[in-house]
Amino acid sequence: MGRFDDRVVLITGAGSGIGKASAQRISSEGGIVVCVDINTEQVEAVASSIVTGGGEALALTCDVSDQDSVRATVATAIEKYGKLNALCNIAGMLRFDNTLDLSLQDFDRVMRVNCYGVLMMCQEAIPHLLETKGFIVNMASTAALGSHAWTAAYSASKGAVLSLTKCIAIEYSLLGLNCNAICPGGIETPMVAGANLPEGADERLLTKVMLPDGYFAPPEDVAGVVAFLASDDASHIKGDFLRVDGGLMT
Ligand SMILES: NC(=O)c1ccc[n+]([C@@H]2O[C@H](COP(=O)([O-])OP(=O)(O)OC[C@H]3O[C@@H](n4cnc5c(N)ncnc54)[C@H](O)[C@@H]3O)[C@@H](O)[C@H]2O)c1
């Protein structure tokens, strides 16, 4: 018996990094995974490798910052599988800026993907999750906890995700919904590999965002925690967050 046998789990950001590893992990424990991402090619590749391996997966292209796209995605998942047991909001974007140079358009884009995307997914999924007494796992970041230079937009968006998580958790707690967050730090994914520090960044400040040995953990280290918080094993944890950061913020 797998923890996710006969459970339908929708995972955003499933085309890469932590979302991809989470889809693979939950599938390996018997879950039916609805793999959602803005990158069609990548998300289809993830879903088809799961299917090739004997799992059940559906790939859906969706821009989580677009309400119509979010609505259509959840509707398609429900139409196909008839229920939703868990929602894992993992899609996200990162940018580094000197705060004085950060345009409102760029701030808005990060908020739309990282924060509005989580809110809109929750709004569409919660009615279905209430029927199954389901689980929400939101991806925040150690950036939500402080001391990450050049990430005004990203840190603000992740701080908002943490607050949103607690609000949803308490608001629906009496109805059986379970909502928690994860704060990863230093995970080796394309997001981190592709990030460029802003011009003139004083790299001494990197000591606040990196472990002293520079170690980056694989996305599978976070995927196991996503699976835990999306499962019955976490049923008595409500509105909390788990740091998966190798002790960075300890
Ligand atoms: N890697 C880390 O160290 C780290 C640390 C803290 C938090 N996180 C968070 O973990 C999550 C996953 O990041 P990752 O490191 O795996 O990065 P990643 O770039 O490998 O994966 C992010 C995925 O989100 C998708 N995505 C981006 N914008 C989207 C949109 N508008 N709609 C739908 N999908 C979209 C991308 O296509 C990509 O597949 C993010 O929310 C990120 O902020 C990562």
Descriptive account of the structure:
The protein is α/β, with parallel strands linked by helices and 250 residues long. The protein has a single domain (8-244), classed as NAD(P)-binding Rossmann-like Domain (Rossmann fold, 3-Layer(aba) Sandwich), CATH 3.40.50.720. Helices cover 41% and strands 15% of the residues. The protein has seven helices and seven strands. It has helices at residues 17-28, 40-52, 67-81, 104-132, 152-171, 190-193, 220-229; strands spanning 8-12, 32-37, 56-61, 86-89, 135-139, 178-184, 241-244. Helix 2 links the parallel strand 2 (32-37) and strand 3. Helix 3 (67-81) packs parallel to helix 4. The longest helix is centred in the middle third of the chain and has 29 residues, at 104-132. It is globular, with a radius of gyration of 17 Å. The model has no long low-confidence stretch (mean pLDDT 97). The chain binds nicotinamide-adenine-dinucleotide. Residues 12-13, 15-19, 37-39, 42, 62-65, 90-94, 113, 139, 141, 184-187, 189-192, 219 line the site of nicotinamide-adenine-dinucleotide. Nicotinamide-adenine-dinucleotide (NAD) binds at residues 12-13, 15-19, 37-39, 42, 62-65, 90-94, 113, 139, 141, 184-187, 189-192, 219.
